[in-house]
């Protein structure tokens, strides 16, 4: 009786080990799939000093980039990050993509030298009505020079950065639909004509979006659209509502790394 029990025990153990090993492999595989994520940062303006709430000092930005690289983050283009989130390629465990909204002239005067020196991939979201028009914005010539570096993608931030919530209240339903279509389609046409770029991505002005706007974006040919949100974008997110961390000067280096580290940690705890 005793020896029979002993025999059963040694026969079952290897099988159990095999099952456990197999379960571990399955878990590891699904965890890898679930953890497909990228931290997408959004900046607005740059400068030697903090001129307004949306300006990040050049020195702070440079220190943030240096620290992220030191901490093992991989800086990728937004196209690369989206392809990864879409399952078309693998993302490094700590992936960061940098975006800059609004086409402020400090992108040319302050950010461009840093992009060149650091070989930094950056995506700009532009609303073409301001370019070569508003005093705070870049010119088409400056944008062309930036695109010429081969490091910068230019995408759409609609045509004139409307507040879609206000426009929906203001306009009759038919007029609103027409307005939305125009704001989606025109920037792609203009960016193609002026810079020769396809602009497959959209940043929602003020982060405002809903299912109707998302449908209009898809109909206009956008493959991904970006909002704000204090968390990483993951493969579980809709490609038309991907969150980005809004970065301001006061985060500094410590604030940014804490933000990204805490989020990575939270993601691991929440995901089974
Ligand atoms: Zn904006």
Characterise the protein shown here.
The chain is of the alpha/beta class and 272 residues long. The protein folds into two domains: 1-34; 37-270, TIM Barrel. The chain contains nine helices and eleven strands. It has helices at residues 2-34, 58-70, 78-85, 106-118, 140-147, 164-170, 173-195, 211-219, 252-270, and strands at residues 37-43, 45-47, 55-57, 74-76, 95-101, 122-126, 152-156, 201-203, 224-226, 233-234, 245-246. Strands 1, 4, 5, 6, 7, 10 and 11 form a seven-stranded mixed β-sheet that branches. It has a two-stranded parallel ribbon with strand order 2-3. Strand 6 (122-126), helix 5 and strand 7 form a beta-alpha-beta unit. Helix 2 packs across helix 9. The longest helix has 33 residues, at 2-34. It is globular, with a radius of gyration of 23 Å. Bound molecules: zinc ion.
Reported by name, the CATH topology of the largest domain is TIM Barrel
Report mean pLDDT, rounded to a whole number: 89
Shape: globular
User: Do you know the CATH architecture of the largest domain?
Assistant: Alpha-Beta Barrel
What does the largest sheet look like?
7 strands, mixed
Strand proportion: 15-25%
Helix content: 40-55%
Measure the end-to-end span: 42 Å
Order of helices and strands: HEEEHEHEHEHEHHEHEEEH
Ligand catalogue: zinc ion
Domain unit count: 2
- CATH first level of the largest domain: Alpha Beta
CATH homologous superfamily classification of the largest domain:
Glycoside hydrolase/deacetylase
Q: What class do helices, strands and sheet pairing give?
A: alpha/beta
Helix segment tally: 9
Low-confidence stretches: 1-10, 27-34
Radius of gyration: 23 Å
Number of strands: 11
